[in-house]
Amino acid sequence: MFPIRDHNPSGRTPYVTYALMVANIAIFVLTYFGYDSPRSLTALYNAYALLPAKVTSGYDWKTLLTSTFLHGSWMHLGGNMLFLWIFGDNMEDEMGHFTFLAFYLVSGIGAGLIHVASAPYSLVPLVGASGAIAGVMGGYLLLFPRARVDILLILIVYFRVFSIPAFVMLGVWLGMQFLGGIGSDPQAGGVAYWAHAGGFGVGLVLTIPLWLRRGGPAYWGKTHGQPPHPEVSYSTSRIPRVARKSTSDDRRNSPWDR
């Protein structure tokens, strides 16, 4: 189950969201060919990926930021950019361009620190923008809990697109991160579940001042958790029908992906 779009239009052009997407894609493309060389990959990660043991020892703090612009595969990059594209424009619309940029970066740094706390002596590198994007999702949940999100559900050979409230989709996603974190070894590679959950929490907390300025619970009472702009309607005829599920999967689970 993953989102493909929301029905929540933004009132201004999300320049920062687009710029972040371009930066992530460009950095991945520029470093992509280095992934074929173990030596180059090791050098890249040693310099810019987040290694919790180094941060715990008091150095390489810059990697809390630089690691958020690295990705382990095309699938990793594509999934993160899809989530940023769906949820980022609305948060930028509410916060303003520069505030949203600061919010995004602080969410990513906070997610990295929580990952370090969960695996303080790990030497497995952490890469990916998911912690920062999870912060965007946390803020989105607070401001637009009832905005409709279109979900593509895949159950073996069953495919269907349907709309659900954002609080359902984001609540399920967050629950999956907690369950994944509880069932994973924090010192091993794989998906950085605690970075995801931590970034979500950081973003939600950082959005509370904006939510309070909008009126807090009264804002929910006025908007009923819906977007401030008239929602977009999509024709179901535009949703592609998929005949069967592809069995290919090029995602790599190590290093930590967030």
Automatic annotation (TrEMBL):
The chain crosses the membrane at residues 15-35, 64-86, 98-117, 123-144, 151-173, 193-212. The keyword rRNA processing does not apply. Gene3D superfamilies: Rhomboid-like. Its main location: membrane. This is Membrane protein. Keywords: Hydrolase, Membrane, Transmembrane, Transmembrane helix. Residues 222-258 are annotated as: Disordered. It is found in: Membrane. SUPFAM superfamilies: Rhomboid-like. Belongs to the peptidase S54 family. InterPro entries: Peptidase_S54_rhomboid_dom, Rhomboid-like_sf, Rhomboid_protease_S54. Residues 246-258 have a biased composition (Basic and acidic residues). It holds the Pfam family Rhomboid. The keyword Membrane applies. Residues 61-211 form the Peptidase S54 rhomboid domain. It is a multi-pass membrane protein.
